[in-house]
Amino acid sequence: MSFSTLSFSLLGGVLPALFWLWFWLREDRLHPEPRRLIILSFLLGMAAVLVAVPMEQSLCGRIMGNSGTGCAMELPLTGKVFAIIVGLSVIEEVLKFAASYFGALRRRDNDEPIDSLIYLITVALGFAALENTLFLAGAIKTGGIIAGFDIGVLRFIGATLLHVVSSGALGFFLALGFYQRGKIRKVDAAVGVLAAILLHTLFNLFILNNEASGLHLFSVFAFVWLAVVLLLIGFEKVKQFKG
Question: Which residues does 86 contact at the CB level (< 8 Å), separation at least 6?
């Protein structure tokens, strides 16, 4: 990979993620999180991609019966394609949760309900930053800067916010259980993980269906921003939680 391709890919992958991080951190301006934990969570989110990629390749290889290089999600929606979509969602959402747990959620600084939303979204944006960088590198290498730009725009309003919304849903359920006892908190966490996986799966199915309809960009934009609006409402609700 050339230096210019790597540079454009990093800029196109990381800078948009940092913009969204700035946007979401503004939701907790009264009690901002420690900068070191925000940075750590973002980096752990990026590191989670390095774990996810070989796991996803192995999953696809097992399902498709090949060496792990064929992981295309395409119509028709066969049982194997559906299994891949669900499997990828499980891997990514569980890894993002694990990264947020070891990065921030188990620490004393996680001391109010909204913190779970902030840390999970930060991890999600770190994950999206490196994932987008890899996608951009492939697009630029095969189709040039224009192809990379097109992919970057789609992922800026699509896949990046998907990660935010799915992880934010988990963060919301963790916030619901913040002041509850151990067993209830575990139930809320489990429901949150399932909600994140479900959202991720539905989004990928939605993308797959709309790629064949010619309304891909508009539909993705509308679907994701509806989810973002709901997440913003969730933030406002969480701010009202009291012990």
Answer: 197, 201
